[in-house]
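STRUCTURE:
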């Protein structure tokens, strides 16, 4: 993905949000999950990425997507001790 005119990232995997997101803003984790009609917790899926090229990204900047060469494969979940799945 290209973010603005300079920055670029590569999406590398999927993950469920963990409590570490609260380091960005207190209470953010609570906004990234909800309970469905059965009462089960539903987590909003997040993505992991690596920075390919840094740069300043401003609000309203254009975002463009460049797909990798085919064949395309779905991103897989990344598990860790904070994100047990």
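SEQUENCE:
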């Amino acid at each position: 993905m290209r973010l603005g005119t300079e920055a670029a990232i590569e999406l590398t995997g999927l993950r469920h949000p963990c409590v570490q997101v609260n380091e960005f803003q207190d209470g953010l984790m609570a906004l990234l999950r909800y309970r469905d009609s059965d009462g089960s917790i539903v987590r909003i899926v997040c993505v992991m990425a690596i920075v390919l090229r840094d740069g300043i990204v401003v609000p309203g900047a254009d975002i463009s997507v460049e797909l990798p060469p085919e064949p395309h494969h779905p991103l897989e979940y990344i598990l860790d001790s904070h994100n047990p799945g």
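REMARK: The CA atoms of residues 23 and 63 lie 25 Å apart.
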